[in-house]
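In response to reviewer comment 3 from the previous cycle, which asked for concrete evidence that the modeling workflow produces usable outputs, we include below a single protein chain processed end to end. The sequence was submitted unchanged, and the resulting structure tokens are shown without manual editing.
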Amino acid sequence: MRIIVMSDTHGNYPQALKACQQAEPFDLVIHLGDGGDDVDVLSHCLDREVIHVAGNCDHGSKAPRELIRECAGKRLLLLHGDQYRVKRGLQDLERHASALGVDAVLFGHTHCAAVVPLSGMLFVNPGTLIKTGSANTFAILEIGPSGIDASLHEIDPSL
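The workflow returned the following structure tokens.
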């Protein structure tokens, strides 16, 4: 299973659509918050499922703040991250994820892309696709018989 993971688009749905174009083929899109309106555009334009959680800037969103989703037999924790103070480190989020028994944690909020193995789990922050970002990044999560692999990608300016 191949999943596009993005976060913190903050109204920059053209970059989100470019990420999808660049990542083809894929099975699913996960948006980790701060871009609720962008999720609506993605859902309308793509013929694949778009799963999302609300971020701290998604005022009035009816999306959950946190979600556990099973994909290809792996449990993924999806959240924005602000509620676990991820800008100060991953300790609180690591404790929470360990208690839930998930295989991977997908989070945003910091605008800093990272893939970090921690306590037997994979922590993935896809970065940001905000217009003013110096690097517009997203992640691709691949889940197969050998486990979960994550890679970070910058938007190709030629698209």
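Strands lie at 2-6, 28-31, 49-52, 66-71, 74-79, 104-106, 114-118, 121-125, 137-144, 147-154. We consider this sufficient to address the reviewer's concern, and the full set will be provided in the supplementary archive.
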